[in-house]
Amino acid sequence: MTDKSYSLEEIRLRLNELDDQLLSLLSERRQLSIEVAKSKVKTSKPVRDAKREQELLVKLINKGKEHYALDAQYITKIFHTIIEDSVLLQQSYLQELANPNYSKPLARVAFLGAKGSYSHLATREYFSRKQTELIELNCQHFRDITETVEAGHADFGVLPIENTSSGSINEVYDILQHTTLYIVGEITQPIEHSLLATADVSLEDIKVLYSHPQPHQQCSEFLRHMKDVQLESCASTADAMKKVHEINRPEVAAIGSAASGKLYGLQPIKSHISNQTENYTRFIVVARKPVDVSSQIPAKTTLIMSTGQEAGSLVSSLLVLQRYGINMTKLESRPIMGNPWEEMFYVDLESHLESPEMQQALSELTKLTRHLKVLGSYPIENVKPTQIKLN
């Protein structure tokens, strides 16, 4: 557009044209990402090329400054999202090749709560990357999810396992001790808690607050300042929102996603009420059979083990991982039911199960531990942003 004055309607029409062009270009870029994945099948190159990503970002930042007056932060933010999408598309393509019998155009998935729960949102986000149509199965309890998959009534189950604010979800860890299922995937989702009600009321007027116990923990600092509020627990945030909708009284509210609240006719009274500004929940995906992970994709392996009661037995096991250069990203202990004072350790490792280092480590750990079980090896889908220095 020139310096000529344009009406608001003309400007909006031009913006619409530009948006259409952007969508077309993004679609074309996605298709080219798949072509890149196909070429990497032949060359066996890893999906991520840090040097190439860094060079690309630097080039785009310099060009943006020079020719389009766009600042570095703006360009970096946009292209981090584009690079993440490209990486996940390529990983999904390579995983389909590695697991031809696992790819399904239609999948039955069990998750916690009704439509609009955080588990439901995570389920849709995860499987949207797989271009899989879903049959959604709502469950009231974590145990119901695993039992539904074990019985063959669902192909996959989605379980929240840890949150950056409230920590590990112990009930899920305890279920993993006894399930026959395998972890086949993971997804980390931003959690944006809001206070939701049927009408625009003041915080002082709210007397009853429904939610799942986890959001109660994650918003404890905010709740501490609310006077004379009765906290009520529900099976999920969706059930809490549904309950508030049914009661339909202004003094009754729920904690949940503002976007999901719209499904139940609720409006946000207060947003961003979590203890931490950056609030994320990691979900795992479980199935009856394990998956193979392409060697071109970064992988995580999760195992559980119990060590002897001798001093230093856990340290000896961890030194095995250090010796083989295997990075541990999570160590969680839980009591073994029926065995007082004994604990089971859950360990997340950044390693392919079939790698020589992992196989050697497992061989040694088997001799050192009283019990050892691999819960699954699966692609790492938390794509870390490409790091560059901004001037």
TrEMBL record:
Q: Sorted alphabetically, which SMART domains does this protein's record hold?
A: CM_2 (SM00830)
Domain Prephenate dehydratase intervals: 108-288
E.C. number:
4.2.1.51, 5.4.99.5
Q: Where is this site: Essential for prephenate dehydratase activity?
A: T281
- Residues bound to substrate are R12, R29, K40, D49, E53, S86, Q90
Lyase as a keyword of this entry, yes or no, is: yes
Instruction: Provide the Chorismate mutase domain boundaries.
Output: 2-94
Q: What does it do?
A: Catalyzes the Claisen rearrangement of chorismate to prephenate and the decarboxylation/dehydration of prephenate to phenylpyruvate.
Task: Output this protein's name.
Answer: Bifunctional chorismate mutase/prephenate dehydratase
| Native source species | Vibrio eleionomae
Q: What is the lineage of its organism?
A: Bacteria, Pseudomonadati, Pseudomonadota, Gammaproteobacteria, Vibrionales
Q: Which gene encodes it?
A: pheA
